[in-house]
Amino acid sequence: MHRFFFLLLLLNITWATNTNAQQTSFNSIEDALQQEYYDNVITLDLSNKNLDTIPKEILNFRNLQQLILTHNNLKELPVWMAKLQNIQSIDLAENSFCALPPVLYKMRNLYQINITNNYIDTIYPGISALSKLEIINFSTFNFYTFPEEMTQLKNLRTIDMSYGWLSDLPENFGQLPVLRKIIFGRNHFTSIPETIFNLPNLDYLGLWGNQLTSVSTNICKLEKLSYLALMSNKLTKLPQCIFKMPALKWLPCGDNKFTTTQINTYTGLAKQRKLDAYSFYKKDSYLVYY
Questions:
Q1: What 3-state DSSP class applies to 150?
Q2: How far apart are alpha carbons 188 and 146 in whole angstroms?
Q3: Would you call 287 helix, strand, or coil by DSSP?
């Protein structure tokens, strides 16, 4: 009998726990406002809402950590959003921003910003205040110079600045101590900036679709590099030390200007090295992954 009552009590506790479990992710302001406790709203997805302004009701959600605003008509963010101090990730892709909204600089817990496909041409001073920032995606942008202040973001791990106008990097870019992933595809580099070779933890380097004509042997200093994407450039040769890089697994280099003899040599070296994937033929312009 005692065992029966114990099992019944255990079932009641389990039922109560599941009943009290709170939803934390919402796809509309209206649904989020129906919650008894606004502090339970952690993720708010307002994508594809045809927004041109931010609803001020989001200030009710003091514990909001992830805000998704993709595919709207936004051109700026209001200054009062600085009150949302718990936001860690904000997605502004596919809007109408021309500048990185400076109010973001006051959200000191941000670790991820995505503002891809907005044709950003201005980054106002102050971004270095985001000391926790780890991931930034500016893909499809309209400025020609890498913002030097971004080299002060010492926790930065991933940079995606593909589809832009960069042709060089500031000298102190190589002082980003934990940077692991760089995507500079479809820019205007004619050579790999030497400062990149000073990044000891770099694992992924995407320079596809640029105007590279050569690759320095200094690239072989990147002992942790596992993915090197150089396809669709103007390369006429590769340094053979690449095939001895200890961590390298992926080497997509198709759609360049290698001779048939070079292609056969590189293919043989790649097979000998047992790379997971590689390409050197002109038709091979694929093997990009994120």
A1: helix
A2: 12
A3: coil
Residue 204: beta bridge partners?
A: 181, 227
CB 253 within 8 A of CB 279: yes
Residue type, position 117, single letter: N
Q: Give all domains of the chain, ordered by start, each with its CATH number.
A: 144-290 (3.80.10.10)
In the beta sheet, which residues pair with residue 279? 252
Closest CA to 133 of 145, 151, 148, 121: 151
For the chain, the C-alpha Rg in angstroms (whole number) is 24
Q: What is the pLDDT of residues 111-131, one digit of tens each?
A: 999 999 998 999 999 999 999
HSE of 94, CA atoms in CB hemisphere, 13 A: 11
**Alpha-carbon span 163 to 95, nearest angstrom:** 16
Question: Could you tell me the sign of the dihedral formed by the alpha carbons of 165, 169, 170, 176, in that order?
Answer: positive
CA distances from 34 to 28, 38, 39, 46, 61 (A): 10, 9, 12, 16, 12
**Sequence-separated contacts (24+) of 171-178 with Cβ below 8 Å:** 171/195, 172/148, 173/146, 174/198, 174/199, 175/151, 176/151, 177/201, 178/154
Distances (CA, A) of 40 to 56, 63, 86, 150, 216: 18, 7, 13, 33, 52
Q: What is the pLDDT of residues 132-180, one digit of tens each?
A: 999 999 999 999 999 999 999 999 999 999 999 999 999 999 999 999 9
Query: What pTM value is reported for the model?
Result: 0.89
